């Protein structure tokens, strides 16, 4: 679990005026909400620029939960988890937001009829989830923004869990370390 997730590109309009996320902790489960999620991998097919699409009102659930050690075994272990729950998938605007985009407004069908052109590549990325944030990360997984506000809340959650549930946290840490060793071994 890392705390240095990349923001998809510096200070951007979709980072401005985000609702203030709040952390609430019940036992060893935490919820951060409301969260704005912005989706990766959506590009204008005419100007090739990234098109940020986002929705507000989502949540991040995180903390410690019990998971099975393997598919073959019924043994369980406490493990850290983080789940991204966007409130909804973003809707696709009628047109590209980038000024100077060369997109033609219409195209001509063989019948001579004029129809609007499509413009957005990567619509398949606009899934609503929920997304479990673990390696390997689902390429459609949206990013919570701004990370500068989300990251301290996650840090606060982890440190609270370590204080209030030291045994569970130690077991979850041990499991995470074992998973890392396994991943390094390939
Ligand atoms: Zn464009």
What can you tell me about this protein's structure?
By secondary structure, the chain is of the alpha+beta class. The protein has one domain. Helices cover 20% and strands 30% of the residues. It is built from 2 helices and 10 strands. It has helices at 147-164, 166-185, and strands spanning 22-26, 29-38, 43-44, 54-68, 76-85, 106-108, 114-116, 120-121, 131-132, 143-145. The strands form 3 sheets. Strands 1, 2, 4, 5, 9 and 10 form a 6-stranded antiparallel β-sheet that branches. Strands 3-8 form a two-stranded antiparallel ribbon. Strands 6-7 form a two-stranded antiparallel sheet. Helix 1 (147-164) packs across helix 2. It starts with 21 loop residues before the first strand and ends with a helix. Bound molecules: zinc ion (ZN). Zinc ion is lined by residues 44, 46-47, 49, 96, 98, 101, 103.
Keywords:
binds zinc ion; 30% strand; 186 residues; 10 strands; six-stranded antiparallel beta sheet; two-stranded antiparallel sheet
Q: What is the topology?
A:
Blueprint: E1 22-26, E2 29-38, E3 43-44, E4 54-68, E5 76-85, E6 106-108, E7 114-116, E8 120-121, E9 131-132, E10 143-145, H1 147-164, H2 166-185
Antiparallel strand pairs: 1-2, 2-4, 2-10, 3-8, 4-5, 5-9, 6-7
Helix pairs in contact: 1-2
The chain binds zinc ion.
